[in-house]
Amino acid sequence: MNHPRLPVPREPFDLLAWMTTAALTGPATPASVAPAPAARKARGSWLDRFERWLWIARQRELERALANASDIVDLEARLRDRERRLLQRYY
After folding, report:
1. Cα distance between residue 25 and residue 35, in whole Å
2. Labelling 71: which of 13, 41, 56, 77 has CA 20 to 30 A away?
3. Residue 52 counted as domain residue
4. Long-range pairs of 55-64 with CB within 8 A, sequence gap ≥ 24
């Protein structure tokens, strides 16, 4: 279980804390090993890009509409109104 470059604690509580940290943060890498360069993200098809553009446009419109709210009560009322209008499209 001991690795020459990764010190493993011997006490039970320390071992549990070490394992939890490793599980949450990922495997420990020695400082001498450089991380691999990030692969370039492939561009999606034109349909994927168009869908993303439409989503961003809808989000901007939503943010513009909600930005005019005067207080939290008005903001919640605007959100409820938008949610109800979404449901009316389908029924």
Report:
1. 15
2. 56
3. yes
4. none
pTM value is: 0.44
* Closest CA relative to residue 28, chosen from 56, 46, 61, 5: 5
In-domain check, residue 64 = yes
Q: How many residues does the chain have?
A: 91
Domain membership of residue 23 (yes or no) is no
Residue 67 sits in which domain range? 46-88
Residue among 26, 23, 39 at smallest CA distance from 15: 23
Backbone φ and ψ of 15, nearest 5°: -65, -45
CA gap 82, 62 in Å, rounded: 9
pLDDT tens by residue, 37-54? 666 667 788 899 999 999
How many of the other CB atoms lie within 10 Å of CB of 34? 7
